[in-house]
Amino acid sequence: MSLDVEHTKARLSEIRKQMDLVRSFGISIGPSTPWELITIAVGLVAAVERVQALHTPDEFGMCEGCGDNEHGYAIVPHPCPTIRELETP
Ligand SMILES: [Zn+2]
Predict the structure, then answer these.
(1) 62 CA → ligand 1 middle, Å
(2) What span, in angstroms and rounded, lies between the C-alpha atoms of 75 and 26?
């Protein structure tokens, strides 16, 4: 399953606002599970973003996060397998 990080963050933010509104009216929608799930999802999105930040292309289009050869040059074309795994459906 692919993860569109920006879309997911925007959607989580929307859901959180709606849930805060519901809570501000004192409406109970059950145990605190939905809030916990949002917190977990936000953490997962942040983890994906940290991985994406490590696997960025250099000026030659190679992945900076996938290791260098003995001369210090990145050798894996970007998008690398890690990025493809995160972003391909
Ligand atoms: Zn990589």
Answers:
(1) 8
(2) 56
State how many domains the chain has.
1
Ligand 1 center to residue 53 CA distance, Å? Answer: 10
Query: 14-35, pLDDT tens digit by residue?
Result: 888 888 888 788 776 666 677 7
**Which one is predicted more confidently, 23 or 63?**
63
CA of 81 to the centre of ligand 1 (A): 6
Give the SS3 label for residue 68.
strand
Between the CA of 75 and the centroid of ligand 1 the distance, in Å, is 10
Strand partners, 77: 62
Three-state secondary-structure class, residue 17: helix
Instruction: Between 81 and 73, name the one with better pLDDT.
Output: 81
**What distance in angstroms lies between residue 73's CA and the mean position of ligand 1's atoms?**
13
Expressed as residue numbers, the domain containing 65 is: 5-87
